[in-house]
Design goal:
Protein-Tyrosine Phosphatase, Chain A; alpha/beta; 45% helix; 222 residues
């Protein structure tokens, strides 16, 4: 099984291809996965310690790529925690809550990525934490919101295989709505982000520097 939910963030945007990728966690890595990783400088791993399998990236690590463990502070959106969330909580509301309460963590992740391009960012499913991080970067770069929504929504096609890999079952492990990737969730997130002044203003107030933002633009904006 190749790396799931994998794509270049340039797929639905006008950004420079081959610079920033997103995916689910590694499972059974293929030769194509190894080739991709060989061209990176950073794997930004957003999973917590209890989510990572021992050495799951080891078969493809080596050379210049650095595997950065950035999951501290991200456990609210880990698959194992979703079952404890209120049944009436919408995915968009979850994303807005994470944005408001984990802003400094998100700023730190974006800074790591800015310093490590070309990079791959992932969590467990490559949906929630990864989706928020990618949306923040795209908003900072001035990508139109409908393109951000389209990028996020591509995850829906990969979810059946991702849920199988993670052994997650709706209702048993989490409210079914939290295991989906509806466009409405990202639209809710982006509306809240706009009310907070946009990604650049928000992240600069929580630890990102102008140099980080400039590096992202230089690498990703053609």
């Amino acid at each position: 099984m190749p790396l799931l939910n994998l794509r270049d963030v340039a797929t639905e945007t006008a950004l420079r291809p081959g610079v920033l990728y997103r995916s689910a966690q590694p499972h059974t890595l293929t030769a194509d996965d190894a080739k991709l990783v060989a061209g990176l400088r950073l794997i930004a791993d957003l999973r917590g310690d209890n989510e990572r399998g021992p050495g799951d990236w080891a078969p493809v690590l080596g050379g210049a790529v650095r595997h950065a463990l950035l999951g501290a502070g991200s456990s609210d959106a880990a698959p194992a925690q979703l079952a404890a969330l209120p049944a009436d909580l919408t995915l968009g509301d979850l994303y807005v809550g994470l944005l408001r309460h984990r802003t400094t963590w998100f700023a730190g992740v974006v800074a790591e990525i800015a310093d490590g391009l070309p990079a791959l960012v992932h969590c467990a499913a490559g949906k929630d934490r990864t989706g928020i991080v990618v949306a923040l970067i795209l908003d900072l770069l001035g990508v139109e919101h409908e393109a951000i929504v389209r990028d996020y929504a591509l995850t829906a096609k990969a979810l059946p295989d991702v849920m199988l890999m993670l052994d997650l079952t709706p209702s048993r492990d989490a409210p079914a709505a939290l295991l989906e990737a509806p466009e409405s969730a990202m639209r809710t997130f982006l509306a809240a982000l706009g009310e907070l002044g946009g990604a650049e203003r928000l992240l600069l107030a929580h630890g990102l520097t102008k140099a980080h933002a400039d590096r992202l633009r230089a690498a990703l904006v053609p």
